[in-house]
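Q: For a teaching session next week I want to show students how multiple molecules come together into a single three-dimensional assembly. I've collected the sequence lines for a complex. Could you give me the predicted structure tokens for the whole thing so I can convert them for display?
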Amino acid sequence: MKTLLFGLFLTAVLFAFKADNPKKIIFFGDSITQAGVNPGGYITMLKEMFTKAGNTSELIGAGIGGNKVYDLFLRMEDDVLSKKPDVVVIYVGVNDVWHKASYGTGTDADKFTKFYVALIKKMQAQGIKLILTTPAAIGEKTDHSNQQDGDLNQYSKIIRDLAEEHKCGLVDLRKEFLAYNLANNPENKGQGILTTDRVHLNEAGNKMVAELMFRELMK
Amino acid sequence: MKTLLFGLFLTAVLFAFKADNPKKIIFFGDSITQAGVNPGGYITMLKEMFTKAGNTSELIGAGIGGNKVYDLFLRMEDDVLSKKPDVVVIYVGVNDVWHKASYGTGTDADKFTKFYVALIKKMQAQGIKLILTTPAAIGEKTDHSNQQDGDLNQYSKIIRDLAEEHKCGLVDLRKEFLAYNLANNPENKGQGILTTDRVHLNEAGNKMVAELMFRELMK
Amino acid sequence: MKTLLFGLFLTAVLFAFKADNPKKIIFFGDSITQAGVNPGGYITMLKEMFTKAGNTSELIGAGIGGNKVYDLFLRMEDDVLSKKPDVVVIYVGVNDVWHKASYGTGTDADKFTKFYVALIKKMQAQGIKLILTTPAAIGEKTDHSNQQDGDLNQYSKIIRDLAEEHKCGLVDLRKEFLAYNLANNPENKGQGILTTDRVHLNEAGNKMVAELMFRELMK
Amino acid sequence: MKTLLFGLFLTAVLFAFKADNPKKIIFFGDSITQAGVNPGGYITMLKEMFTKAGNTSELIGAGIGGNKVYDLFLRMEDDVLSKKPDVVVIYVGVNDVWHKASYGTGTDADKFTKFYVALIKKMQAQGIKLILTTPAAIGEKTDHSNQQDGDLNQYSKIIRDLAEEHKCGLVDLRKEFLAYNLANNPENKGQGILTTDRVHLNEAGNKMVAELMFRELMK
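A: Of course. Below is the structure for the complete assembly, covering every listed component.
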């Protein structure tokens, strides 16, 4: 049903969208985005959607495994600003939370905010349109018992607030993933619904992310 | 309203309870239980409730700050078994989760289970009646964004399952605290509703714990 | 040279050792010991040494990956006491330190001591002869700059003190590994001298551990 | 003896130093530097030394508790560059290591390097002369068994290499503190020799830091 609706949406877009307005869009993130350019990855899927819609925008993956918000900050000049994109989708936050437990080098919530704001300000000053995303999941259990659920919710809230405050687009993956899991994960599994390993996207996950981003990018 | 209902319950107990059946009850836990014997603490309150109810049971606090489940295990012989109690209330789990972030020495979920089962088996083998409690809170925010919420929920689920499997009483503090906060913490504060500092009980918190334990102990 | 000396030592043992005194020896530890029974593992090497020396003692590996001191405690009854060994070699500590950073579930130094003492007392009460070992390494750099060096030194000191206090044998792997690396690791590498991956033994590492344990077992 | 030598050194400086060359010097760091401006603090002591030496340089404390290298980076513009200093002393690294264990939010070694390099480049581009310092201690035991010794040694090595590579001055507090403790801490105490609490400077610690910085600043 959902897929059907999306098909109708896609058809509507095919007619409505002005094909003479190609843009340069950079996807800026961590390993999830790094894998997004693989066959079946969410960026690869988006490219196909854009082509079908007659849109010749250039979609560029700029994800590096293990990246936290300040890694994005450190390579923003080289990997984003110097390429002069029209739109940047920022997809970060999982490692900022996860690395607290796995390496002792996560990011404090207040520093996460500061670096995120620095990203936003610097990019907006260059006239870039921004779309922020919340970190989808570290674990797919639906009863709020994935170890990092509390922290991921906190960092997602920070991102939602930043999107509103700085007038950025928002793709609320965290909210969407939980909703999907509540409907499709009756056994309360930790992985395998939208992720392969609690974090990285499986086919359904890539599809969901691609569709949600497509809607936001077409706005 | 809730307080009124509890008052009625207390009155009912006053008539129903057989005052000629005093027991030795040990409260076995961490700093929350250590503070429970202070003036205004939940064990102190329970003593007053027992006295009012004409029950001469002996209530003994056995809480030590910083204790995790294996600390209880290590001192079970000295602090519980050797005293030959009739009932033991186990109140542990906060530090098993919390110390992951603050010292790197929390307790793995599977080891938490193993030591908890060892506690249960050893005490039940001596004929002790057990009441388990879930760890109430590390942070009182109601939107599932306290940092350790996910982990606390997981450990609480373990305890609920153990109570059922081993036929122990259960005081589900985690559930009760969240319900109370949903009703009484509209500003989504991190502390000050039932705790003084996100973890340790304030007056309302001690009162709630005392009342919930009283009901369970009177069963 | 060192190998030659050990050859002479081995020859001397061949004549001195009473072959009619076979014992049951259990190696109780973590993944390092689990791998010790593989071809080329230190327990496998020890078996060959014992055979050469005409000693028919039974050598049993009882290592499980990820084990910390309290895991040994929890399975001591099943994996050691019930088998009625004459000698037990305890090789634990790496995960108690390492898991602080990698999972947030390492072992506090004071609890490490308590559980270790519990192991010692229970086994000695059954007449078992104990040989303790210090945790060799998490990283082989010789300039005291491996991340966990400070902690490993602390836990090694605890083990040395326990060996002396409780009259156990001691194989001071930590000291021997550092000495060997100071002589053989001029480039200050993190791994590849005695370990494959900073922690687990390569061929030279297994050989060194086997030889050191052989000397101690032959005392 | 050491104090006498320093007295002679100070006297020599009194005659050699050109008093007509006042500079603006900023001390940029964490809580140790924040406390440096208190009575008896190392910056306060340095001010007295400068006055005695007839030097009217302005010494400005810019320390904030809990700061890590990227906190310095985030406030460099406001707290350093905008004030146009001639010299900046950077004293950071303790929290980058310490917060791994206490909050799970320490700084990865490679990111520590990147942000430190960014500090150096930005300040040197403004013509500022830099003096780097190594993080003195988290614990004063001299047998390499303070929990964070390995990590502190690693980060100190990074700073020494950066000082050489980028031609900055260096005050090697880590080396000096260990040398002093080897001579003055025969009981292997964890604190009380140069620190009050394993980290923050006591009177002797402030004196040592002040004297070492004075020598470097007078070069």
